Amino acid sequence: GEAVFYVTLPESAFISEFLMEVKDKVYKAYVKEKEEAKAVYDQAVQAGQFAGHVALDARDSNQFSVSVNIEAHGKVTFNLTYEQLLSRNLGVYTNTININPSQIVEDMSVTVNIEEPTTIKDLEVPELQISNEVVVDKPNSLAKIEEKSPTHKIVVWAPTPEEQKSQNATGLSGQFIVKYDVDRESNPQQILVDEGYFVHFFAPEDLPQLKKHIVFVLDYSGSMGGRKLEQLKEAMDKILSDLSPKDHFSIVVFQSYVEAWSPTAMYSSGTEHLSSWDIEAKPEIIRNTTLDKRFVIEATPENIASARAYLANYSDLGATNIMGGLRTGLELVSIGSDLWINEIDPPQHLVVFLTDGEPNVEEYDTNAIINKTKPLNTKDCPIFSLAFGYGADFNFLRKLSLSNYGFARNIYEAADATDQLKNFYKTISSPLLSNVTFTYLPGQVDNSSRTKIDFPVFFNGSELVVAGKINNNEIKDKETIGELSGVTANGTHKYSMVIDYMPIDLKPKNRTFGHLEKTWAYLKIQQLLDKADSLDKIEERNQTKEEALNLALKYSFVTPLTSLVVVKPNETESAVDTTQVKPGSNDMSAYPAYGAPGLASGFASSSGSSSGPLYSVAAMPMPVGGSYAPQMQRRIFPDVHLHGGSFTQVRPPSTPYYPPALPAMA
């Protein structure tokens, strides 16, 4: 018979170990450079590994599956370890475990073990989320929370077969979610040191909000017609209403041509791309105005009401002039910057760029658009790109944003798309700091090892994380190792960086590398991959990828540059790859987080025999009557062993990398 191991894991996670145990013999997979593994990888892809077994799509996730032939009544145990930095988003860390056994399970449990150096607060376990369109706020009545101490809490969810049947006669299907935060009142930062490495978490909350000038560059092309456009209009209606009176905003709409709106003037460009039919049908679009300060609009109630009416009534849909939309948006950023050039606390500029398709007017080449956009962004304004639905080119939008100090997110075509848009806006609606820089003393820190230290903007509810190597192994608790600075609403603010030794063990047993070292490697690889995608010169890009590859091989991480080679009993080696879940209408949600992180490692295990049907539960298929127990743990991953499985966590990176089809350690 054939035993199948199937896992849905977070998109930002790196698989780091996979083991199979058959007849008391353990087979360990190994990580190789992707090209080296290409032959076996292609063989696995051609075999079409178990795509038909997918019963649940989880947003912002990757899927991993492997199979092995075993004799009748034989038994195989699978163990998968993956590691991830938990992002803090809107003031909480969120851990999501996909549950989908497709049957009633005799022994099912999820254990979440959270250990922190400071007090854990705002711990929430909502009901199992069974739909993207219905977000459940009710507490999970089956989840038990044990408080070991203010810094150590354990969540156990173990529904009996009867409790499973009461929710779904054919087995549970949904997402088990745990949310929490840590106390930051005493100190907005933590600097943890262990075995020559440090991780620095920074998340201030007591700062006044910066003013902002937000430029919305919105796709109103023909493909946006119907439900997507109505959802965008509904979301913008709410977003505009939430602007602060001290904010400014600009609206750019693009289709075959580009239009900018203000209460007193209209601007159009790109009309030379219109067909004669377009011009004949709507001659008033030919306008000869130029952009000026009238299009940088105060967020007064009257102006907001007018803007809402404009977007609600806009109905002309055409082609997709992305280059024109971006050019106009960045020109408005420059106009706004010149307006406030002499102010002590000028607004923070932000561009929100949304599209559902690919360019087909003026400039068709996405790489050319990226190369042309960077020199237009003279004010170094973050561009946040939103890929709405199947038709959007997410890889292009991701590279565009990485090249312009921002990040990209998917907006999934579903009934909750309006909420997805509003939730995204919440993450960037409250900038607290701009031009944040971490400066470490050369004698204390190996500055060549540091991860990213410059951040254009810090948003309330997020977190910045820097990791690196320390030079001085004798570094003491409460010792200062540098200074952090950023611009607040009241001017430049500086923080001293003081070491805070963590009162829990940081190195798991029988592991080569400690948790802080793995956190550093994880962050470094993510940021090198991001950097490579934002570089123009091929030589620099290849050097950056080579550095990321060497780290991935050293720490056995499956990345876009490496693959997992699985050794099977009585078979030749075969390569396994993870595949990305694409934006779709029925995906289970796990909203992406931006901002900085906490470290997490996951361990999933299951066992099954060929005599019974197999199923997958949040990563692991098991026989009827089997047991399942994934577990999450503290931010700086300790080792955990459960029969069913475990998932351990720590916090994450400031601009996390969300790989496309993540190549399982092929």
UniProtKB/TrEMBL annotation:
Domain VWFA: 213-428
Domain VIT: 1-84
GO CC term (a single one): protein-containing complex
PANTHER family (alphabetical): INTER-ALPHA-TRYPSIN INHIBITOR HEAVY CHAIN FAMILY MEMBER (PTHR10338), INTER-ALPHA-TRYPSIN INHIBITOR HEAVY CHAIN H4-LIKE PROTEIN (PTHR10338:SF108)
Protein name per its UniProtKB record: VWFA domain-containing protein
Source species: Cuerna arida
